[in-house]
Amino acid sequence: MDGTDGMDAFDHADDELDGELDDLGEFEGDDPLDDDLLEETLRHAAAIMDPVPAQLQQTAVEAYALYSLDTRLAELTFDSLVHGIPVRGAVEAPRMLTFHTDELTVDVEVSAHGLMGQVLPPQEARIEVLSGPQLASPPTLSADDMGRFAGDLHVTGPFALRLRTDAEVFMTEWLRV
User: Fold this and answer.
1) Backbone phi and psi for residue 68, each to the nearest 5 degrees, phi listed first
2) Nearest-angstrom CA–CA distance, 58 and 85
3) How many C-beta atoms surround the C-beta of residue 166 within 10 A?
């Protein structure tokens, strides 16, 4: 007796396993056209059985349209809700925000009267006020040669600013008022 008596069944099972693994290897080289046909069939079935709501699809298209490789993000560096000192007796104190990039700083005041701010270093710019899905183009403010801008836009809900200077396009982070 060499210790392998009765192990023939295990050797046979191992051969069957090897054969099954070899059979599975045949699926690795499937025709990509079959995969494309399957994907198209599944897309068609999903469109019929569970269509994407029109409003959701429009929101997705608009969100993608906001994306641009040339746009630089202006980081929020000051928010009066977080860093501000409360003023006694102030009922509706304006919200003060500061956004910063390597090239510029944007100070913004959001109040019940609208938006007011300044681009530093002073320069002319076009400021688009983005506030979620919109049917028309977003409201736009113009910064003068001193970088100052103001408008009676009443911002509600989430919003962001897109600044277009002569040199570049900057986008602020999205914030909730």
Assistant:
1) -150, 135
2) 41
3) 7
What's the rounded mean pLDDT across residues 77-93?
A: 77
Q: Answer yes or no: are the C-beta atoms of 146 and 107 closer than 8 Å.
A: no
pLDDT bin (cut points 50, 70, 90) of residue 59 is: confident
Give pTM, 2 decimals.
Answer: 0.59
Question: CA geometry: angle at 137 spanning 133 and 138, to 5°?
Answer: 70
pLDDT value for 60: 73
Q: What kind and span of H or E run contains 143? A: strand 140-143
Closest alpha carbon to 125 in 156, 97, 101, 161: 161
How far apart CA 46 and CA 34 sit, in angstroms, is 18
Tokens at 85, concatenated: 């000192």
- Token pair of 32, please? 């990509």
Q: Burial level of 132, CB count in 10 A (0-12/13-18/19+)?
A: middle
* pLDDT score at 5: 55
